[in-house]
Amino acid sequence: MPRQIPYIIANEGCERFSFYGMRNILTPFLLSTLLLFIPIGDRTTEAKHVFHTFVIGVYFFPLLGGWIADRFWGKYKTVFWFSLIYVAGHACLAIFENNLNGFYLGLALIAFGSGGIKPLVVAFVGDQFDQTNKNRAKVVFDAFYWIINFGSFFASLLMPVFLRDYGPAVAFGIPGILMAIATGVFWLGRKKYVHVPPAAPNPDSFSSVARTALLARAPGQSRPGLMVAGAGAVAAVVSLCMTPSWGFVIAACTALVLLLAFGGIGVSMQLERARGAHTDAAVEGVRSVLRILIVFAMITPFWSLFDQKASTWIVQANSMHSPLLSVFGWEFTLLPAQMQAVNPILVMLLIPFNNIALFPLMRAVGITPTPLRRMGLGIALSASSWVVIGMIQLWMDGGDRVSILWQLLPYALLTLGEVLVSATGLEFAYSQAPAPMKGIILSFWYLAVTVGNLWVLIVNAGVKNDVVGGWIAGSGLSSIAFQMFFFAAFAAVVAALFALYAIRYKMVDNYRKTA
């Protein structure tokens, strides 16, 4: 086992505690402290807007971190310097607990720092192995995944208590200390790491092939793909012009989605024109990435549902009854934010359950649990979790006193969906993308999370509209119940479309060949 691995594992454990520690108390803090100046009827909507804007940033900045590491600094330096920005962000949260601009600056720095290192740490672990010890890599990646859930569990369990008993300065300060420790531990191993230098620019990269395909001329033919991509660029500019009414985040993210969607369609229309200027393998690699992007696009509703467990579900839990529980004589009541601790515990239980029980059962009844089938089932399960959470909300809206423990069922369904979608998605993408394109696939995977949270912001903004609000009121549902059933229906429809696409998708095998 490479002797530098413990430094990276310890770094990841502390970093994940710091991230989930602040993330899981963000919505309760916004509702109870920072946003008290907002009328109570609008406070929940604004808290959700702030939370999902933050998540969008976290999953957008991997693009920047990966680019800097690949072209300039390498993985170690990029992780180290972005980690210092990350620590500064935590400090701002602790210091500016009553200052709106200072607190938002802290969130921006954490999104920048956390997002910047997100695509690099796992790859940095892989860099520490070679042909002589590659058999140890799986053990390390299992430990890596375990420590992430370990950190998430204790952060979800403890930080809401610190927020309640000691206030936001302490509650946000502790994750900051953990991130500082994570950075220090990572720095201590600097002389032991294997440092892979930044790669030279690749003439057959995804962007190079796509640009050639769009700009290449064919004798006697127009460039329809370029016109489609151009239409997407115009639509993106229009989206940015809507910033005053939509807000910058919605306008900018919508512009990005339009550029990717229309640009991808345009490239696929003229991709064959890149042959000759680029290798056949590079052209086919771009074709594979474009096919994978369709899968990623249909996964975005899942992320809309999944990330709202730290916003919408906490808002619901705030209005629920928390009974007195007893474990080995220790009596306690669960805080709303502590319910999120259910997720990492269930992840660690459901992965072996799937491998030991669920997948063998599917095979026994003649259903092969292919990656696409697993992901489609995961989206459907996430939709069902929101049907359940919506039914609970109707129960509450009817005036009944509902126990917070009723959220255990939707948490179980959503976590099972997470395991089937998230754990399978990267496996699927890795197997389908040729070696030179695997890096770009990871970036697009994170962008899928960004787009998923964009849908939440759009729905959130739509509910504020007087016409939409009046229509919801006329439906007999509360605003929160309506949104719950809307997102359930959204995911269910996409799960059906996903199933249809999965039938037509032809799997390939792009795992590295053995010598």
Labels describing this entry:
membrane, 75% helix, peptide transport, peptide transmembrane transporter activity, 3 domains, globular, 2% strand, 19 helices, transport, two-stranded antiparallel ribbon, Growth Hormone, Chain: A, Dipep/tripep_permease, mainly alpha, 515 residues, single chain
Number of continuous helical runs: 19
Rg, rounded, reads: 23 Å
Which blocks of ≥5 consecutive residues have pLDDT under 50?
none
Q: In oligomeric terms, what are we looking at?
A: single chain
Provide the residue-averaged pLDDT.
89
Return the CATH class of the largest domain. Answer: Mainly Alpha
Outline: globular
Strand order of the largest sheet: 1-2
Pfam family, one: PTR2
Protein name: MFS transporter
Transmembrane segments: 20-38, 50-69, 78-96, 102-122, 143-163, 169-188, 224-240, 246-267, 288-306, 345-365, 377-396, 408-428, 440-460, 480-503
Main location: membrane
Task: Please tell me about this protein's structure.
One of its GO terms (molecular function) is peptide transmembrane transporter activity. The chain crosses the membrane at residues 20-38, 50-69, 78-96, 102-122, 143-163, 169-188, 224-240, 246-267, 288-306, 345-365, 377-396, 408-428, 440-460, 480-503. It is a multi-pass membrane protein. Belongs to the major facilitator superfamily. Proton-dependent oligopeptide transporter (POT/PTR) (TC 2.A.17) family. The protein folds into 3 domains: 1-199, Growth Hormone, Chain: A (Up-down Bundle); 206-214 and 223-278, no CATH class; 298-325 and 333-514, MFS general substrate transporter like domains (Growth Hormone, Chain: A, Up-down Bundle). Strand 1 and strand 2 (330-333) form a beta hairpin. With 515 residues, the chain is an all-alpha fold. The protein contains 19 helices and 2 strands. The chain is globular, with a radius of gyration of 23 Å. It has helices spanning 5-34, 40-60, 62-95, 100-117, 121-127, 137-166, 168-188, 206-215, 224-241, 243-246, 248-270, 280-306, 312-318, 342-364, 371-397, 408-432, 438-464, 466-475, 479-504; strands at residues 324-327, 330-333. The mean pLDDT is 89. The longest helix is centred in the N-terminal third of the chain and has 34 residues, at 62-95.
